[in-house]
Amino acid sequence: MREILNKLYNTHDLEMDELVYLIENADTTIINDIKDHAKALTLSIYGNKIYIRALLEFSNYCKRNCMYCGLRNDNEEVDRFRLTKNQIIESIGKAYDFGYRSFVMQSGEDEFYTKDLLSDIIITLKENFKGIAITLSIGERSFEEYKEFKIAGADRFLLRHETADQKQYEKLHPDMSFEERKRCLYDLKALDYQVGAGFLVGLPNSNPTIMAKNLIFLKNLEPHMVGIGPLIIHKDTPLKNYKDGSVEDTLFYISLTRLFLPKAMIPVTTAVNTLDKKGLEKGIDSGGNVLMLNLSPQELKEKYELYKNRETKSVYDLEKVAERLENIGYQAYIKRGDHIDWSKEEEGK
Ligand code: 5AD
Ligand code: SF4
């Protein structure tokens, strides 16, 4: 075991069999050692800044039917909404005036936002609000669409791979394929986006081999961001009788991901904060360095119900968040905050 850990700490890579052995045999002492190394590594690269992203959930319409997700198309209990171009510009503008420069625009897979409409929104945002970074999180699209959005000014794209096991992926995502998911992620990389992938912890039939596959998939893809969250059961989905994923396991995979991809931007996800009141502190202690705060009005936030009791903090509660960060020796950073390998040009503006 010691040999495997040293290899992980020194080379930031492991073979499949070593990783499976580690996941199967990591006791509390080992887990804590891994966490300490992950936290120190994060500090050595990004210092004590926690990068804050302002998240706008602009549509909860979705054509997909992911088995775990409350927004799935078949769920008729959802009160669906879409924001207009003006509403999007208004809410981002308000947060811009507050000081935020990094925005995530998230929605279900909603074809209402065509290539032209979404490009137009992105162009207008970039014109009106100088120095912002726009991250899209809108699901699978064609290469051509991704290209248009990039030309329009989108900087980053989040598309979790959810699980790197093809069989598990296809069971949980009816009418979707893992091949197509990979196509999207590699297209986004080829188009020079800062790309975010990531996976769910505690999916049905997961095992150490599948979790090791997730890490090796990430190592090969080399995304700039990795979102990792526990599964949280939603009562109006086919997984309603299943159980939540574990926060402890999620923190362990945040640490392993940090050690595999030292420079990645890794959020302490909303799902972690939902299941654990001290999720923020624990996530940072495990190697997380990003936090997303919500900029939607309360009534719309409630309609964006991926899972129950989603604990979303508002961008306008920054003071409270900053205080929690200060208490553990960290600072909230609300500017663009690019991946360290990315052009530094935008930063100083
Ligand atoms: N529990 C946890 N995470 C979920 N997501 C969707 N539904 C759930 C759930 N029930 C995650 C998916 C998706 C992201 C936007 O939300 O990983 O990529
Ligand atoms: Fe749609 Fe995303 Fe939910 Fe899947 S996880 S049903 S793509 S909103």
Name a few traits of the molecule:
single chain; 349 residues; TIM Barrel; 13% strand; globular; binds 5'-deoxyadenosine; binds iron/sulfur cluster
General description of the model:
By secondary structure, the chain is α/β, with parallel strands linked by helices. The chain contains 14 helices and eight strands. It has helices at residues 2-11, 16-25, 28-46, 85-98, 115-128, 143-152, 166-172, 178-190, 208-221, 247-260, 270-275, 279-285, 298-303, 318-327; strands spanning 49-59, 102-107, 133-137, 156-158, 194-201, 225-230, 290-294, 331-333. Strands 1, 2, 3, 4, 5, 6, 7 and 8 form an eight-stranded parallel β-sheet that branches. The protein is globular and about 55 Å long. The model has no long low-confidence stretch (mean pLDDT 96). 5'-deoxyadenosine (5AD) binds at residues 68-69, 160, 162, 200, 229, 231-232, 234, 271, 306-307. 5'-deoxyadenosine binds at residues 68-69, 160, 162, 200, 229, 231-232, 234, 271, 306-307.
Topology overview:
Elements: H1 2-11, H2 16-25, H3 28-46, E1 49-59, H4 85-98, E2 102-107, H5 115-128, E3 133-137, H6 143-152, E4 156-158, H7 166-172, H8 178-190, E5 194-201, H9 208-221, E6 225-230, H10 247-260, H11 270-275, H12 279-285, E7 290-294, H13 298-303, H14 318-327, E8 331-333
Parallel strand pairs: 1-2, 1-7, 1-8, 2-3, 3-4, 4-5, 5-6
The structure holds 5'-deoxyadenosine and iron/sulfur cluster.
The site of iron/sulfur cluster has 9 residues, from loops.
